[in-house]
Amino acid sequence: MKKPYYLFNPGRLSRKDNTLKFTPVDEAGNEGQPRHLPIESVEELYVFGALDVNSAVLNFLGQESICVHFFNYYEHYTGSFMPRDYLLAGKVQIAQTRAYTEAKRRMPIARSLLDGAAANMLRVLRYYGYRERDLGLPIAAIEDLRQRLPDAKTSSELMGIEGNIRQNYYQAFDEIILDYDMGGRSKRPPKNEVNAMISYGNMLCYTQCLKQIYHTQLNPTISFLHEPGYRRYSLALDLAEIFKPVLVDRLVFSLLNKKIIQANDFRWELNKCLLKESGARNFAKYWDERMNETIQHRSLNKKVSYKHLIRLECYKLTKHVLNDGEYKPFKMWW
Amino acid sequence: MYVIAVYDVNEKRVGKMLKLCRRYLNWIQNSVFEGEITPVKLQEMVVEANKIMQKEEDSLILFKSRDARWLDKEVIGLERMSTDNFL
Prior knowledge:
- The structure holds 2 protein chains of 2 kinds.
- By secondary structure, chain A is α/β, with parallel strands linked by helices.
- Helix content of chain A is 48%, strand content 16%.
- Chain A contains 10 helices and 12 strands.
- Chain A has helices at residues 55-63, 90-101, 103-129, 136-147, 155-171, 173-176, 193-214, 234-257, 277-292, 306-321, and strands at residues 3-7, 11-16, 19-24, 35-37, 42-47, 51-52, 67-71, 77-81, 266-269, 272-275, 294-296, 303-305.
- A 4-stranded mixed β-sheet of chain A has the order 1-5-7-8, with helices on both faces.
- In chain A, helix 3 runs parallel beside helix 8 (234-257) and helix 8 (234-257) crosses helix 9 (277-292).
- Chain B is of the alpha+beta class.
- Chain B is 32% helix and 26% strand.
- Chain B has 2 helices and 4 strands; from the N terminus they run βαββαβ.
- Chain B has helices at 11-24, 39-52; strands at 2-8, 26-29, 32-36, 59-65.
- Chain B has a 4-stranded antiparallel β-sheet, covered by helices on one side.
- The A-B interface holds A 1, 3-9, 11, 17-19, 22, 24, 33, 35-36, 38-41, 281, 284-285, 288 and B 19, 22-27, 35-38, 41, 81, 85-87.
- Chain B: Homodimer, forms a heterotetramer with a Cas1 homodimer.
- Chain B: Keywords: Antiviral defense, Endonuclease, Hydrolase, Magnesium, Metal-binding, Nuclease.
């Protein structure tokens, strides 16, 4: 099985004997012992530290269809190196664009995506509801809002409902997380520990979705729920919507409640809170484990990893735009 | 599957063997590699190795296991290289 590699140390990545060589460099500029990454086992690269690369490496990574995701000092997503599309399919591209331009066809997809997201959020909340948390109010509010989804006529109306659902959902976080207060979602910059973790997790989820889309025939810039704008891969945002509650939020709760990530894993800068390298590293480690965890898939009747669930979602969307079966969003059933 | 590969080849060919193995598995010690690999990829590596090796003199030994979890790894003394994916 291929696995992603996470580079936190600053260093240089070079091509050596048809494989990758990573040479860490410390603050004084001294090179450490190089590590060879077996190219055949690299799924993708996540770069958090300062990294030197040259075109030889990029050519090589391109040849092997390996994406590289870059993050800046503030753990913001900066962008990805995406090798040339290797699964081109004009037919899918045209179908996808059509599905977007015709409102009659776009709205059902957007609505399904949101319905899936709401269903997953409710699952998460109910789980904690059974564990003696007082979550009756937000659950009722979200259920109420979910009923209104079929009435929404335009995608901006949908996004409005989405905003309200999220607001109620995030209010419940204070009840679920034991030692920290969240006090509403704040981003750019995140104002406290919980927000910092959610931002970081959402970003990992977003890049994972992007990578899965890359390995299918869909075009990541044409989206259904989010308005396909400029400068971003909005289809990844659409998909992340469904998976954020399943993957990110549940991980944040367990890392904080089990005290795996603690107060000294965060750094405060001016009026923002960020994860320290130790925290980011730890989070990525558990994230990686979670992505490889498997569940028994109901309709496929076999074990499927969380990572693969996202890919399956892409396949379902492809089928939908090609008029080969209706898209039903992934809903957690446990 | 999870594999430990150990080779013993003539000095003249040892460099080639090292380079080949690096592409597929993680280096942990001189002439010892380990890592997760698919059966097809392993087959590919063996085919390549066969081209390098001279059967009368050299050997490549593979220890295969279904999953890393059935393997209890214990390092005594200095660990030359870890195999994790967080660098």
